[in-house]
Amino acid sequence: MTHFRTVGIIAKQGDINLTNTLSTLISFLDEKGIEIVLDESAHDLALQRPTHSRKELVNRCDLAIVVGGDGTILNAARSLACCDVPLIGVNLGRLGFLADISPEEMTQRLDEILAGNYIEEPRALIGTEIFCNDTLVAEYNSLNDVVLHIYGDIRMIEFDICIDGCFVSSQRADGLVIATPTGSTAYALSGGGPILSPSLPAIELVPICPHTLTSRPLVVNANSCIEISLSGQDNAPAQAAFDGQSCRPVTKDDLIRIRQNDKPLRLLHPNAYDHFHILRAKLHWGEQP
User: How far apart, in whole angstroms, are the C-alpha atoms of residue 154 and residue 176?
Assistant: First the structure.
């Protein structure tokens, strides 16, 4: 008896290379007698199935299978986490940090998971509020990171950082990455930040090409309230990006406030899942030149 009766399927938008894998997945779930809710992201893939809005999917399903890659999971996670819907990632590209089931082993691993044999791993998200002159004007959720950066020019921006109401520093840099442990292997890693264990209750702040060598990555408690505002005398154009998928211009009148969300993403893995194996494979640890 499966633990999940209604399964949502979310696909990488417009990728026709997914059709065969999605057809196999749908046939597999049909044979199990599982109700399928196909996300509107698969609308153009000629699967001969009705598609539904993301809102309807998260309201109806008790499990979501995301077919694509880590970027597709980032997109899906923000809608699934708030509704407490667990997620499985099937990766059609290279081994992913989040999507860790290959198409070749998909039906075998899903058979195990649907029978209740899986590892559930909570992944924290961070929520961002943007205030303009003390008025809340925008809210975003991120599984990986929030990035404050310059755009449309080659120059630095100056910004102030406060944590839990205490002034931390003023910095001049190309920008700042505020990352979850999940996002510590993304932009933050390329910026020189540490790799954080996914279970660590922490948020990291990594300056991008800082003007001074003493400006280093900082790891703070996940319960911290992080506030960032532009400073300095110039009006360099800046923007905040959320998981690299949404962005918003930021001015000197804006205050960016970041906290960890109350609800994490529920990420499901096969019982054989090993986070350090994925790190070794992705980062080529121990390989001889």
Answer: 15
